[in-house]
Amino acid sequence: MNASARPSVVLVGAGPRGTGLIERIAANAPELYGDTPLDLHVVDPHPPGGGRIWRHDQSPLLWMNSTAEDVTMFTDESVEQAGPVRPGPSLAEWAEAVRAGEIAVDPGLAEAVAALGPRDFAGRRLQSAYLGWVYERAVAALPPSVAVHEHRRPAVRVSGSREGRQQVWLAGRPAPLLADLVVLALGHLDSELPPDQQELSDFAARHGLLHLPPAFTADSDLSALRPGEPVLVRGFGLAFVDLMVLLTEGRGGSYTEGPDGQLTYRPSGREPVLHVGSRRGVPYHSKIGYRLSGERPPVPRFFGPEQVDELLARPGGVDFRRDVWPLIGKELGFAHYHRLFTAHPERTRMNRADFEEKYALADPAGPALGALVAAAVPDPADRLDLDALDDPLAGVRYPDGEALQEGLRGYIEADLARRHDPAHSPDLAVFLALLSVYGQLVRIGDRGPWWHGFFSYLASGPPGPRLRQLLALSRAGVVRFLGAGTTVLADERRGVFRAGSAGLPGEWVEARALVEARLPEPTVERTRDPLLRGLYADGAAATPAGLLAVDPTDARILNRSGSPHPRRFALGPHTDARSGGAFARPRTNAPAFRQNDATARTLLSFLRDRAAPTAPASRVPVPAARTAPTPEEPHAADH
């Protein structure tokens, strides 16, 4: 078969999402595609497996925020998919195999592998090695007739009619890649500044200040943040934790642990003083530090496929707050109270079966549900209050700045204690229910920024050791808390940034540097990615929040009339079907795995159904390859 006529798929993005799709193509190919030739072009300027976010080339001080046993790239029996399960090791199991000599890694990682236990938080460099290994394994599992071509360049444009082959143009390459199908697995992208951020950037330029807009922290140039100077930081999630690490340990500071287990920070003298605040005014909740024993919460119960079907069938569309949130609240409450009744029955005063029967009948938005919980659970501390969780400092005022620092340290200490105490195991049940809810919401599409932030705040917080370090930095005066309801102003008269909060009315902190500690919003209108921006300009649909609209069944890109493109697909955080992550906790029916399987099967079925009959000689298997065999071929690899 002429190389240019061979079936071809271009996958733009070789990070964990693209790697997961390749794994699913390999798993489904024997059933759906057989030994028909196929060119698979993998396009990414960064090394495959880790991609940009999980590349090896970043600070060794940066960690994952999930334990090693809670990270896998492989499907299991929990995943609702049409394709076969192909088991594989979690990060913890992979590290064990490395220690046993069954898998080879860079010798520079030997110490990190040796120290990694199942409940430890791996460094991102180690995760990069795991992802690279998964990529190699996925490529090796492809049928021999599939040739894999890596292109270490960015893709800049896709053209072609809906009925014909697509052309994928790469930076610096004069001829396009020809593709029967194109899949975008772009991951997190840089963005042009929205109006409010542009105003702050312009203000900083006028007054000789420093404004660092939302960005992936590991890519930010922090060198201009000077030792000892006050720096305003807006955002208290994982981006802040990375910033905190890079500006403290990353500048030579260190920690010592006292006999009571408390950490003390020893400054290097090169640290700025970080004044951090956010809407909530508190960091994301610590990762839970114990395993669930006994029965898992039987979810979904009140927010499952049946309820989603009903929501999608409603005329006039779905309003998240009005239609969806009450069902989510009932689901989370069910998981919480199921665990309380089964694991801690002494803290309840009602028969469990009676409670669950009445709970099932109660209107999720009505007063009867609250009355039932009050009657069955005597201690308010054992009741699930989602509003209080979302806004823990609502109405709290402090008399002065030092009282605010002490109050926030007390809050963080209490959170650490609770999240590491199995007596509060309903918290872990709620976490598992959150994962279930996220998986159901994929079908509904764009939920707006509030839900994603709430989910991340409860379920994607930092490791406990990071919060212990935060407390030490606070005691050392390197980190100062601003409080809830943080407001940042650009003071033209004084030529400085000013920050205050609702927790300390009337008091302001001035600084010549402002850091926005969060990722850019993944909007197609403002993305700096020319490929995605071009698709939007050519008619691809976006949601009201700016996410690329895709068909929830197989990730085909939708146009503005709602029709799916037959040859273009998109997966990841820039789409309205974005899931919690490209890798997942084992046995949680991860939505990303389900999406990858559905997309892989659609790709293979499309190619199979359109494959022209060929003579036997043309069906001789082509050896699987990381690159094309010769540079003269139309699909030769670019490096």
Automatic annotation (TrEMBL):
UniProt-listed Pfam families: NAD_binding_9
Annotated segments matching region Disordered: 562-588, 612-639
Bias (Low complexity) ranges: 612-630
Residue span(s) of domain FAD-dependent urate hydroxylase HpyO/Asp monooxygenase CreE-like FAD/NAD(P)-binding: 10-188
Source species, domain of life: Bacteria
Protein name: Adenylate cyclase
Upper classification of the organism: Bacteria, Bacillati, Actinomycetota, Actinomycetes, Kitasatosporales
